[in-house]
Amino acid sequence: MKSSVLEILRVATRLGLTSFGGPIAHLGYFREEYVHRRKWLDEKTYADLVALCQFLPGPASSQVGIAIGMIRGGFAGALASWVGFTFPSALALIIFFYVFQQSQLQEAGWLHGLLVVAVAIVAQAVWGMARNLAPDRSRATMAFLAAAGAVIWQTALSQVLIIVLAGLIGWWLLPNKSVSEPSSIQISLSRKVALFALGLFFALLLLLPLMRQLTSAQWLAILDSFYRTGSLVFGGGHVVLPLLQTEVIPSGWVSPNQFLTGYGAAQAVPGPLFTFSAYLGAVTNGWLGALLATIAIFLPSFLLIVGTLPFWDWIRRKPKLQAVFSGINAAVVGILLAALYDPVWTKAIQTPLDFSLALIAFGLLTIWKLPPWTVVIFSIVFGAILY
Question: Which of the given ranges, 149-163, 170-184, 300-314, has the highest pLDDT on average?
Fold first, then answer.
């Protein structure tokens, strides 16, 4: 059953207003909302979507949201899902630039409360996905090994290579019977449209730098810098920060102090960290720069999802490839577990008080079954009081 575009927009906007904690926590919010509450897709399909988006450059959580929107409402649903999840935080960061750009947000107690509640949210997501995706000894072992590898080997390509290795192990060692039959997913986009989107992705990646050399137009320079960043970063989240820094600081668009202040603001708002581009664009060229930078950095993800999703269900139905996805899903659990340790745990848990607040938040989520947004508010309030 398909969903209306307005319904997709409404649900995505609510997630965009309440999804604190970074990209890994976002996957936990999405799983709770789309799989458990609304049952728009099953656990296996959601896990496969996460695995697919881990392969692609760009913000994985935003790509999962775009893919779910496309499954439920076609191209318009994908656009509505992206707008709803992205623009609340983008708008908040633009407001931060105009109103709070001189504030030292990194020291705010309520911001530390947000970091602590992210520990509970990610832990809940890891626990729930592990029970479904790594239920036996072989897949649980793969998950632990993937977690160890992701913690020890932290490079831009480490997650992609771990996932590729897990897929090969699944191909060789996991029996097909251990993988359930995938549910049918109807994608309303044709493969011709998908191929056009992939072609446009590579064309822009190659042509924008050349066009930038031929003109001094700042809007084209912004488009090139942010599109290239969104096309080349794997893993999403904080991985994007070094690339953005090399694009905007040497060019003189943004000062180091402005960059650090914006980074603090980006951690304080819900939604994808890639909306940090809205703040940087606002510093560079006001509202127009903010809008252009936001669209440019997310455009590669949109084109890649449109280009790959129509082929995805056909690939999942190949018997041997199901074992590949089983191995990949186990590795994704391990990567989430690694992210729970670093950066989520290492940034948030510094004192016994931090651990206690995280433990209480985890209990509210798992035992009392409170909605994540209420636990976020609880942690913000207690963070402001305790810190």
Answer: 300-314
pLDDT in the model for residue 178: 44
Residue 295's pLDDT band (boundaries 50, 70, 90)? very high
Q: Is the dihedral of CA 103, 107, 113, 116 positive or negative?
A: positive
Segment 47-59 mean pLDDT: 83
pLDDT of residue 348: 83
pLDDT in tens, 367-376: 998 877 788 7
Whole-angstrom distance, CA of residue 64 vs CA of residue 26: 10
| The two structure tokens encoding residue 254 | 């943004």
pTM greater than 0.90 = no
CB under 8 Å to 83, separation ≥6 — which residues?
9, 12
